[in-house]
């Protein structure tokens, strides 16, 4: 799986699990909603700073967002 698709799927799953809208997550993370939409769609790869912002918004450590991506990448 491509990295951008994997990270997008993880962000989307976490957001849905919290029952947040894209507007709520983008606001909590301090990122543009259009950029969030592109991340979730797998069209853009977030920078490390954006991963940190998303992790903080979700209340998790950044590795919770990145480790599944790493595990999928290593398999391929």
Give the % helix: over 70%
What's the β-strand tally? Answer: 0
First-residue to last-residue Cα separation:
7 Å
Rg measurement, Å: 11 Å
The CATH class name reads Mainly Alpha
H/E element sequence: HHHHH
Q: Structural class of the secondary elements?
A: mainly alpha
Q: Round the mean pLDDT to the nearest integer and report it.
A: 96
* CATH-derived architecture: Orthogonal Bundle
**Total number of distinct structural domains:** 1
Oligomeric description of these chains? single chain
Number of helices: 5
Throw out a few tags for this protein:
76 residues; mainly alpha; 434 Repressor (Amino-terminal Domain); globular
Describe, in plain words, how this protein is organized in 3D.
The structure is a single chain. This protein is globular. The protein starts with a helix and ends with a helix. The protein has one domain (3-75): lambda repressor-like DNA-binding domains (434 Repressor (Amino-terminal Domain)), CATH 1.10.260.40. With 76 residues, it is an all-alpha fold. The protein has 5 helices and no strands. Helix 1 (3-17) packs across helix 5 (62-75). The model has no long low-confidence stretch (mean pLDDT 96).
Topology diagram in text:
Elements: H1 3-17, H2 22-29, H3 33-41, H4 48-58, H5 62-75
Quick synopsis:
This protein is mostly helical and 76 residues long. The chain has a single domain (3-75), classed as lambda repressor-like DNA-binding domains (434 Repressor (Amino-terminal Domain), Orthogonal Bundle), CATH 1.10.260.40. The protein is built from five helices and no strands.
């Amino acid at each position: 799986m491509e990295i951008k698709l994997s990270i997008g799927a993880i962000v989307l799953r976490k957001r849905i699990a919290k029952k947040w809208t894209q507007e709520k997550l983008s606001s909590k993370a301090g990122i543009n909603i259009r950029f969030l939409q592109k991340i979730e769609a797998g069209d853009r790869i977030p920078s490390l700073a954006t991963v940190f912002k998303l992790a903080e918004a979700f209340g998790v450590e950044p590795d919770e967002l990145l480790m599944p991506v790493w595990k999928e990448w290593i398999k391929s």
